[in-house]
Structure formats: structure tokens, C-alpha cells
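Dear colleague,

Following up on Tuesday's group meeting, I ran the structure prediction for the two-component complex that the binding team flagged. I've pasted the input sequences exactly as they went in, so you can double-check that nothing got truncated or mislabelled along the way. The C-alpha cells for the whole assembly follow below. Feel free to forward this to whoever is handling the docking comparison.

Inputs:
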Amino acid sequence: MRLAALLLFFATVFAISRVDGYIEQDVDCLSWHLAVETNNVRNWKLVPEECEQYVGHYMLGKQYRKDFKIVANNTIEYAKSLTLVGDGKDIWIFDIDKTTLSNLPYYARSDAIWLILGHYHTMTQSLTSGLWRELCHQYRGLCVYQTLLPLGFKIVFLTGTAERFKYIRIFNLKAAGYHTWEKLILKEEADQGTSALVYKSKKRTELVDSGCRILGNLGDQWSDILGDNSGNRTFKVPDPMYYIG
Amino acid sequence: MRLAALLLFFATVFAISRVDGYIEQDVDCLSWHLAVETNNVRNWKLVPEECEQYVGHYMLGKQYRKDFKIVANNTIEYAKSLTLVGDGKDIWIFDIDKTTLSNLPYYARSDAIWLILGHYHTMTQSLTSGLWRELCHQYRGLCVYQTLLPLGFKIVFLTGTAERFKYIRIFNLKAAGYHTWEKLILKEEADQGTSALVYKSKKRTELVDSGCRILGNLGDQWSDILGDNSGNRTFKVPDPMYYIG
């Protein structure tokens, strides 16, 4: 009986591999994740119920950080391989949510919502459902940013966040270590209702029309890196949490 | 001592999870694989040495089949959602190698090379280094094909294989169950030296110029599904074995 319990314990411990703490009973979640990351599965509204545990453990465990790290390393390697013109038109585009700033602590802490509300109440004097997005911490995106800046890239943050949240975004970008940028493009009232793909394509085309060269583009959604003028090279940050089309 | 051996046995058995028979000591191979599948890592020549075991077990184990299956299911779901014009111009493009036909038995059997040589010697009366590519078996791609055909899609096989192998390809397509198609496009002498991306874009543009509507496109390489006229929707079959740009 004791031996059986011991074996069960070891079986449990060693079954943990793909993501910390996640015991792979239904490996189709791995296939679903791969299919999502490769843009084979699109327009999904929610993580499949049977994969909620997988996604939770993936995002909060080591594998997500490792997966993000290899993307960041390849981004940096590519950026370093370029020769810039240096006329201020060498642009790198960053998405913000889940690329530049993270909302993961929101999911990790049961009391996080109170922290956010308390924090932003003083910032905005109003509470909105979108505010949870603003609990941010430093991220792999920051390593990329910190490498690109001294190389001479001009940074453009392109986000689907509404214009009215501009100063919260600025506050959080600066708090996380993003101290300077060429442009911070937020979604104006006129663009509300436009899909992310169309909106971001339009904004990038405006940049190109003004003479900018988009040399790179980093985002966690395919709608960040597909469409018109997506950039000479694009990089996809893992994100099995939600889909924005 | 016996208990220790027993525990080691269970530890080994239960450590096998992501891919059959592969014990995850260096999980960065998972990150590398994800980065490859998402087109973050490009122009790689060889599987990193430390990931050879991972890739071998992945391809020959259950996970590859599951990963391919979800792609096939999503392809079929999308295809069924379409309303075709039915004028013979509703096109679906299939890559051949690793999408439509598999060369996996080549890797799985140590004697496979002899089988191939024996088989194709009678086919071509000459032996070339490319012939190993022709040992094929039925594949997930066939399920997609068999669903698309009665829906009214016209099938175009678009491959980087040289024109001189045309009849070997036809033989193997038919042997695997692909009994009919609209076009089988192989790489002509004039296109040798052209990258897969440029070559496939050119051939697809010719199809579109002739009035075809490319409704879907299935391939294992990003160069199959990026570029001009890639199709209304594209699907990426997993492939951590090689990169064709």
C-alpha cells in the first residue's frame, strides 16, 4: 500500500514536463496550442474548457518564458544583422499587451483586481472594466527594446487600446522601463469597430507613406504581424490566452 | 536497491509525455520547435544537434500525428463552411512533400533506402539522390483531399520537385490514393535556382491570372503559404525536420 502510494507520487512528479505543474492527460491541448500559434485555428473566443488548466500552467510556468526568450533572442539576432540608414526612419513596431507589457500578475494573484482598482482610481478618477489590462510588469519585450534602442531603431508602439487610456499606457510603459519612443499609436474613436488587422495595417501604411521603413514588428497576435506593410520581418510572441482578429 | 531501480523505471516511464519515448531533459527543444513552427526561426540548415532526438521522437511518435490531425480538422471545417461557385475555378492548393505524401518510412526503417532504390530503379532506370523522397505512405493530407474533392474543390498540387520526376510523383500520388487533380505543377528547368517562396508565388499568380480562385492552401513550409496569392486561407502542417525558404 505504501509502495503504491510512493509510486503514484513519483508518477505524478515525473509526469510534469511540458509545463510546470501540468499533468498531461489530454495532450490534444498541446496540439491546440500549436495550431493556435501557427494561425491554423482562428477566431476562437475562449480557451477550450479542457485546456484551461494547460494554458494556466503554461503561462505561469517556465515554458512560456522559455518560448518567449527564443523569440526575443531571434528578434535581437535579426535586428543586429541590419545596417540602418540612420535618418530617423528606421522603425521597429511593438504591440503593447502581452508583448511589451504583461497582465499576467492579474491572473496570478487573487487579490490583483483590488490592487489595480486602487492603483488606477488615483490615475483616472474612474473605474472601467478595461483597467485590469494595466497591471504590468517587466517583460522579455523589454530586452528586445533595450537592445534595439542603442542600435538606432526608432520605436513605434502600436496598440488597439483606446486613445482615452493614453496616459495610463504612458505611465505603465515608463514604469516598466520603456523610457522613450518615436510614436505611441492608440485607437482613435473613428477607428473603433475596425478589426485589429485592418486598423494596424492602416496605421503602418501611414508610417510607410510618411517615409518610414518598418524593419521589424513584434506582437503576440497574428493580427499584429499580418496585413499591409507588416514589416521586413515579423516575430510572433506566444499567446494561447486570447485571439484578436 | 530494488526499490531504487523500480522508482527509476517509473520516473523514466512517466517522464515521457510531450513526445513518445522522448525524455525531456532539454526543454528548449520545445521552444525551438514552437519558434520554427511560428516562423520566428528562419533559414535554418539543420535541426540543432541537441534536438535531433526530440525531432526524431516527435515525428515518429503520436504527437506529430495529433498535431497534424488538428490542422486537418480545421482545414476541413473551413472548407465545408465555403460556398463554391462551381465553375471549375474553385481551387485548393496542396504542397506534396510532408503534406500530401510522407517520406517518414525512410527515417523509420534502416533498410528503407534499399527498398527505395529497388523500387525506383524499375521506375526511372536511373538512381538519383532525390529518390528517397519518393517512399510515400498515406497521410493526413489524404483525409483533407478526400473531403475537398466531393465538395467541388479543384485540386492543384504545387511542388518544388523537378519536372523530370513527374511520373514518379504521379505514380506515388495515385498509389497513396490521390486519384484525380486539376493540375500538378512541378518546377521547370527555367525555375531551378528560384526560391520556393518566389517560385510558388509565381505559379499561384499564374493560376489567379487564369481566373482561378485560390480558396485554400495547405503546406508544411512557410514558403508554401506566404507570398503572393497565397490563398483566402492557409494552413501550416507541422514540420521541424527541415526549412525551405
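Residues 7-26, 108-138 of chain A have pLDDT under 50 and may be disordered.

Cheers,
M.
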